[in-house]
Amino acid sequence: MSRSKRKWDHIQYALQTGQKRLTGFDDLKFVNQSLPGSKLDSVKLETEIGELSLSSPIFINAMTGGGGERTYRINRELAIAARETRSAIAVGSQMAALKDPDERRSYEVVREMHPHGIILANLGSEATVVQARAAIDMIQADALQIHLNVVQELTMPEGDRDFEGALARIVEIQQSVGIPVVVKEVGFGIGAEAAALLYSSGIRYVDVGGYGGTNFAEIENKRRNRLLTFFEDWGIPTAASIIETKSASQELSVIASGGIQTSLDIVKALAAGADAAAMAGYLLKTLMENGTEELIKEINLVKKELAIIMTALGVHTIGELKSVPLVIAGETYHWLEQRGID
Ligand code: FNR
């Protein structure tokens, strides 16, 4: 199967399988503050995540690139939406463009459309230092995402079966590229063990890519009618993954992702310890069903709602959200209790 067919399949099946809202965010509840002492006009959404200064905590996460005209257009529109909403954006895996220069334009268009924005390059953990540098140069990236997707690979008959050496390669890349390296999952979640290994190896940015939104086991099974269905329920729900990752080290900068759809999901993610929040499947669906203008409106609405929720909670900055009271119920409570994480 050609790489370009695979990219298009991922988009089609991601739209078809949708997002199931199994992230665990429903288990996180805020405590109403009747005397918040806050003022909507004083709320600031600007934030810093490590070395990156963001105008709001919202990222458009890695989705696509390569694969011809259709993915070119999707990336172009996502980049326009990122520019108009002053959001950071990650491109999809650039391996395609490193192997075939004709594929470069669908990544380069992201920088063309969003010349002053924060843009993240993206490769898998099989990448070499030379490939990482080339991916960064292709789009003058401000940071590099390296995705980990073991369960997705195992679900694909032609997928990788050898995961040796991934951490060593990531460390080598992060020591040579000179910009932040964000290690991310793709919907199965990063847990405390992996986060601790990453932290002790010098990695400082993690995108949890938790379970409960886009489900790549389901997407890969649908593409081939194969029945590795056990992987469809496999993963660390996003809410638990944020708290697990942060428990490995408070010094890790954490991007929440996996099934994030609403302003309330984002505020809960930030209150649970994340520094920013990234959305993929939900924004893709909005773009494909309603177009670029609606996507821009939706992101702007989410930003407005973030400020309203922050006002209700009595905070004026994104950083202050980390200390608002949060009650954890249900499965997320039991998950964290059994894992010995407060
Ligand atoms: C993705 N995702 C992804 N991630 C990555 O690191 N490199 C990639 O090339 C892709 N490609 C891709 C294609 C499509 C169509 C989708 C929907 C997603 C994964 C994405 O960045 C994210 O981690 C997961 O989709 C979980 O987040 P959501 O979709 O539940 O918000």
Automatic annotation (TrEMBL):
The keyword Metal-binding applies. HAMAP family: Idi_2 (MF_00354). PANTHER family: ISOPENTENYL-DIPHOSPHATE DELTA-ISOMERASE (PTHR43665). Its EC number is 5.3.3.2. SMART domains: IMPDH (SM01240). Residues 168-323 form the FMN-dependent dehydrogenase domain. One of its GO terms (molecular function) is isopentenyl-diphosphate delta-isomerase activity. FMN binds at A62, M63, T64, S93, N122, K184, T214, A280, G281. Keywords: Cytoplasm, Flavoprotein, FMN, Isomerase, Isoprene biosynthesis, Magnesium, Metal-binding, NADP. Involved in the biosynthesis of isoprenoids. Catalyzes the 1,3-allylic rearrangement of the homoallylic substrate isopentenyl (IPP) to its allylic isomer, dimethylallyl diphosphate (DMAPP). This is Isopentenyl-diphosphate delta-isomerase. Its cofactor is Mg(2+); FMN; NADPH. Substrate binds at R6, K7, Q152. It comes from Mesobacillus jeotgali. Pfam families: FMN_dh (PF01070). Belongs to the IPP isomerase type 2 family. Signal peptide: none annotated. It is found in: Cytoplasm. Homooctamer. Dimer of tetramers. Mg(2+) binds at E153.
